[in-house]
Design a protein that fits this description.
heterodimer; A: alpha+beta; two-stranded antiparallel sheet; 15 helices; about 15% strand; globular; B: mainly alpha; Fumarate Reductase Cytochrome B subunit; about 5% strand; membrane (chain A); Multihaem_cyt_sf (chain A)
């Protein structure tokens, strides 16, 4: 029962420490080399303060802070810590702490499970801010390079100190050696970021679709930048940071980076393709110029990530909560494994605790104009249950001058709502010791009631289930150039952009008035000529010659 | 007519023949790729078709620039000056007389190689259809230079439709043009002058004398 409410979002996939990755793409190889602890001028295993038996995470952090005096303060200003994002464009208060999603729903009332992926120790109540004690920041989850640090799936961020329970990636827990971890610290690698960000939504690649364990050691075809036998990018090669605050937001997306590479040196504010590749990335020849003409309207990702959930790890594409709760004849929860992943692994398509699922591998994205702005259907918004509810509505349209066509994973959901007040509800799903948690009691009425109480939200007491869509911008798993989409993937009548309206597109919209009238003229000419020839044949005259 | 003699006269100089056949090849490439880009066939993928279409179009525009220069510097442009003299008779021949076995009313002159209907058609082609296709095509091709203007997408659609309309009109011309090669002389006899340059033209003794004296290369012994 792996379930990780990892909804780290605004700062995308990487972890905690400031690390300088060169901006220029061609320097990436050397950048990757720098990401090992061995490059550092400090060997942490020689530090006396780290040569002792640690019995808890905060003890280690306290030791870190004796030298890294500002680290916790920096962390505490980041979304990795606050789980809150005040969107200046829409005025919405977002962040994992506040939003409702189409996966496990909400953090509130499910804290210790969801906050297992918090970058701290012991945040167990969403109605309070994260712990104020600087020693409660978890340095190791991002900086451990020993590979044996992990966090308990239900421990509010604490690591397992004995082989009991489950880790955040769903493995049986082991006793973490904190001293070994502390002495191993270095810059964050893919393993650090991945253990939370690859497992969001309760399992490998469940949530994002383009972030999975396939990216630990990807080959070139899965991710041209992260290929372990190629450029070997770490997450932070692109997700640059400044004072432990990372570039790359899913709440306020830089959907169109017109600044490009900027001036010599490095941009530390964006994780965009353009910040390395510029705004005219294709070579200057007839084809390249035409492709460069597209960059103002089409996001790089649209052509260069032809499919997501590549590399052999499927993503959940549909989650229907409304069927959850069916039990076996003797009252036990059950699971049905109805999807076979390409590596042969059987994945659940029904769980009593969660409902019905669909999965997909090599999924063709959903495309939409996108200006970078997202409006969440937060718990206070009124919905129309006769329509599909957009959990996070994406903004942008063809003619607005700023939007580009972006690829998305469109998650199809069916989730609980207040059928009188017409609002999405918070539900209390995790709580092994409560008599209201859905996953232990299978009673929606109690679970929703408890969730709404914990959130302090108004609730009529009546609930139903509503169809939802949730959009996840696709931006990882960039394919090698030779695998990019061909023109006719979109420039065709039934191409990938067949459903996008509001603009003219060659090849997609062929039968305009000009085409119809022109064809008529051509047809008339052919009919006329054929008729003329027929009469000549009929009258037996070849036609006059000059005498 | 007895004083006229039929002689082989060069009516299509080397450049004109080069221009004609290169233009033909490019127009066929353009029509073929253009039809594909409009979804009427899928024989060439969209990307390569765009490249081929663009390269052929640019080559054709260069050719036209040379041809326009050639027409004006050699004075050949006068062949296309429209004339109503005999126009009606030619039109009547194609729509009526031809079926009765009448002879073609126009007699080719070495200084006027097109019949009046032909001249008018070619003039229309050169003054209306060709400019329409290449101006609309250039505007289409350079969309990114004007896409920030208001309603650019709408105007792109207008330009694209005009371009397609002009293309079909040119295709219709090609159909009629090729068909008319079968009228009168054999198809082969019609095409030959555009290959060899020489056509059989009835000349007055004065014309023969002039050509033999002043332009001996144009007239075969």
């Amino acid at each position: 029962m792996r379930h990780i409410c990892s909804r780290f979002v605004a700062l995308a996939l990487t972890a905690l420490v400031a690390w300088a990755g060169p901006a220029a793409a061609q320097e990436a190889e050397s950048a990757a080399d720098q990401s090992t602890a061995g490059q550092s001028t400090a060997d942490h295993s020689k530090f006396e303060i780290l040569q002792k038996e640690f019995t808890s995470g905060p003890e280690v952090t306290a030791a870190c802070l004796t030298c890294h005096t500002e680290a916790s303060d920096q962390m505490m200003h980041s979304i990795h810590w606050k789980w809150e994002y005040d969107n200046p464009a829409t005025g919405q208060l977002l962040g994992k702490k506040n939003v409702i999603n189409a996966f496990c729903g909400n953090v509130v009332s499910n804290e210790a499970r969801c906050t297992s992926c918090h970058t701290g120790y012991g945040w167990d109540d969403m109605s309070s801010p994260p712990p104020a004690d600087p020693a409660r920041v978890d340095c190791l989850v991002c900086h451990d390079t020993s590979g044996q640090y992990t966090k308990l799936a239900t421990g509010a961020g604490h690591p397992p100190m004995e082989p009991k329970g489950t880790t955040i990636t769903g493995e049986p827990a082991w006793a973490v050696d904190l001293a070994k971890s502390a002495q191993s610290v270095g810059l964050p690698g893919r393993e650090n970021c991945g253990q939370c960000h690859f497992y969001g939504g309760g399992g490998d690649n469940v949530k994002h679709g383009d972030l999975s364990s396939a990216l630990y050691e990807p080959d070139r075809s899965v991710d041209v930048h992260m290929a372990s036998d190629g450029l070997n990018f770490q997450c932070s090669t692109c997700h640059v940071s400044d004072k432990h605050v990372f570039a790359g937001s899913r709440y306020n997306v830089t959907a169109h980076d017109t600044e490009g590479t900027g001036l010599p040196g490095m941009r530390r504010d964006v994780a965009t393709c353009e910040s390395c590749h510029g705004n005219e990335p294709h070579p200057v020849n007839i084809k390249g110029m035409k492709l460069n003409d597209h960059t103002d309207k089409v996001a790089c990702q649209t052509c260069h990530i032809p499919e997501f959930a590549r590399g052999g790890v499927a993503t959940k594409t549909k989650w229907d909560w409304s069927t959850a709760g069916k039990l076996t004849a003797d009252g036990q929860p059950m699971s049905i494994e109805g999807y076979t992943q390409s590596d042969g692994k059987e994945l659940h398509t029904y769980l009593s605790i969660k409902g019905d699922f669909e999965w997909g591998e090599n999924v063709v994205p959903y495309y939409s104009w996108f200006d970078g702005q997202v409006e969440y259907t937060t718990g206070d918004q009124t919905i129309d249950p006769s329509q599909v509810v957009e959990v996070n509505k994406i903004f942008g349209e063809a003619g607005d001058g700023v939007s580009r066509i972006w690829p998305f994973k469109r998650m199809i959901g069916r989730q609980a709502y207040d059928s009188e007040l017409n609002r999405l509800v918070y539900s209390h799903v995790w709580g092994p010791t409560t008599d209201t948690a859905f996953w232990t009691n299978f009673d929606w009425a109690k679970a929703i009631d408890a969730g709404m109480k914990a959130a302090g939200a108004e609730y009529s007491g009546k609930f139903g289930f509503v169809d939802t869509h949730m959009y996840w911008p696709i931006t990882h798993m960039v394919a090698p150039a030779e695998d990019a989409l061909e023109c006719d993937a979109c420039h065709a009548r039934e191409g990938r952009l067949a459903n996008l309206a509001g603009f003219y597109m060659p090849g997609r919209d062929p039968m305009g008035p000009g085409g119809i009238l022109g064809l008529a003229i051509l047809a008339l000419a052919i009919v006329g000529v054929a008729g003329h020839a027929a009469i000549r044949l009929f009258t037996g005259r070849k036609g006059g010659t000059h005498e | 007519m007895s004083e006229l003699t039929e002689r082989k006269v060069k009516v299509y100089p080397r450049f004109e023949r080069f221009w004609h056949w290169t233009q033909m090849a490019l127009i066929f490439v353009l029509l073929f790729t253009g039809l594909g880009l409009n979804g009427l066939h899928g024989l060439v993928p969209f990307g390569p078709a765009v490249m081929l279409h663009t390269i052929a179009a640019l080559a054709l525009i260069v050719l036209w620039v040379f041809a326009i220069f050639w027409h004006f510097t050699t004075g050949t442009w006068v062949h296309y000056v429209p004339s109503t003299n005999g126009l009606w008779q030619v039109a009547k021949f194609y729509t009526y007389g031809i079926f009765k076995g009448e002879h073609h009313p126009y007699r080719k002159a070495y200084w006027r190689k097109h019949n009046p209907l032909q001249a008018l058609t070619y003039l229309a082609l050169k003054l209306i259809l060709f400019p329409a296709i290449w101006i609309s095509g250039l505007i289409y091709l350079t969309y990114n230079f004007w896409e920030t203007t208001p309603d650019a997408s709408f105007w792109l659609q207008v330009v694209a439709n005009l371009h397609i309309l002009a293309a079909y009109a040119i295709a219709a011309f090609v159909v009629a043009h090729v068909y008319l090669l079968t009228v009168g002389h054999s198809f082969r006899e019609h095409v030959r002058p555009m290959i060899t340059g020489y056509d059989t033209v009835a000349l007055t003794p004065e014309e023969v004398a002039y050509l033999e004296a002043d332009e001996p290369a144009r007239i075969k012994p």
